[in-house]
Each structure stands twice: as C-alpha cells, then as structure tokens.
Task: structure prediction
Amino acid sequence: MTHNPKKSQFLAKETQRSEGLAVQLTTTHQEVAELTPAAREVADLQAREKDACDNAHEAEEKLVALIERVCMDAMEAERLRKERDDLLRAIKELRTGIDLARQEHVDA
Result:
C-alpha cells in the first residue's frame, strides 16, 4: 500500500478541522448552559409582566366603576339635599301657618 502525501495532508486537515469543530461545539454547549438560567429568568419576568398588566387592567376597570358610582352617589346626594330643602321649607310654612292660626284664635 502506497502512502499518498496529498491524501495524508487532506486527512490531517480534516482531522484538524474536525477537532476545531468539536471545540466550537463544546464552547457552544457551555454558552447555552450559561444562558439557560437567564432564559428562565426572562420567561419568569415575562410571566410577571403579563400578570402585572392583567392586574393593572383589572384595577383600571374597578376604578372606572368606582368613578361611575361616585358620580351616581353625587347626583343622588344632590337630589336628597334638594328634597331636604323642600321639606324644610314646607315645615317652615306649616309652622308659620300654625303660628298665624294660634294668633287668630287668641285674637278672636
């Protein structure tokens, strides 16, 4: 069997290239292993962000409902104040009428 120098050179280069690729693959595996905790943390932060957005949306809906209720309560309070004022006027008129009737009774 004859030894072909070109074939030997080719095999040497391919072996060297293969070893280089193995080193790159090992380095890549290490980098991926180092990035895995960071990827988990990113996923956790994304889940927490979604929860925070959901909570903010729910809080906004509750705030809008509360504002609407406050407005309705303010309108009801105004209506009740007017009704109270009307009743106080009616009471005053009745007292005046009673006082006049008493005076007329005393004068008669």
Observations:
- The mean pLDDT is 91.
- Residues 5-107 form the longest helix (103 residues).
- The CA atoms of residues 62 and 68 lie 10 Å apart.
- The two ends are 156 Å apart (CA to CA).
